[in-house]
Amino acid sequence: MNMRYVRLAAAGLAAALACACASGRAYRTDTWETWTSWNDSYGASELKDDGVYYTLSARQDDTRDEPSDGYAPGLILSKEIPGSRWQLDLEADFNIPPGRAKRFSYGVWIGGDGARPSVGNPSAVFKLVVQRQNGPRPSDDSLIVFPVPGGRFVRLPAGLKVLRFRRDGSSFSVLYSMNRRKFVQALSAESPEAATAPSQKFFMSGFAGGDPEGAWARMKSLKLDGEEMLY
User: Fold this and answer.
1) Where are the alpha helices (DSSP H) in the chain?
2) pLDDT recorded at residue 60
3) Annotated domain spans of the chain
4) Torsions phi, psi of 140, nearest 5?
5) SS3 content of the chain, % helix, strand, coil (to 5)
6) Tell me, which fold does domain 7-228 have in CATH?
7) Which residues of the chain have pLDDT under 50?
8) Which of 45, 86, 188, 215 has the greatest number of C-beta atoms within 10 Å?
9) DSSP string, 201-231
10) What is the pTM of this model?
11) Residue 30 pLDDT
12) What is the dihedral of CA 131, 224, 95, 159, to 10 degrees?
């Protein structure tokens, strides 16, 4: 039987990933959705003592929802965000060796209810996409953010400590902090269509053009209006 990909809600993910405890706190994603990869073979997640890890697999693509041209849809982790006014703070770090092109894509996805929140899914009405990437050239080692639609990207400092997504009705913005205290606005965007979209999520996904050479992303903290969502 050809096993494609499915969404695992809280109960399924809880069975797949037990909580990991460190220093009295338990990292867990049992209230998250896991959108499995094609045949459950492209990308993996793991709870460890120091965070939630996402690792890449060769030829996974965060823009596809069907396999084509030798690439297949990869794993997506997502968490529903309620309301039209909120602030979401992410602390994460990345290991992305040079070599074949690879990236982690994450941010805010707004669109159809039950739709797979991939970067390329046409049911999205608005996205804030952050990409931490590397490749064969020194200039490929970068961190960028861009809105969709809109598309014009802004470079972010790779050493930032906190990345903040903010929504106030139809207004969206992305800010960053180098010290967890002072925040600098990187971009702002408007999306009137977001008001009627039934689903709004934070997502984490990735792409690897070949051997990802051990690339990983680690989410250490994700706070919605100051309340931790990872433990």
Assistant:
1) 10-16
2) 97
3) 7-228
4) -75, -20
5) 10, 50, 40
6) Jelly Rolls (2.60.120)
7) 1-5, 9-18, 22-23
8) 215
9) EEEEEEEESS--TT-EEEEEEEEETTEES--
10) 0.90
11) 75
12) 80
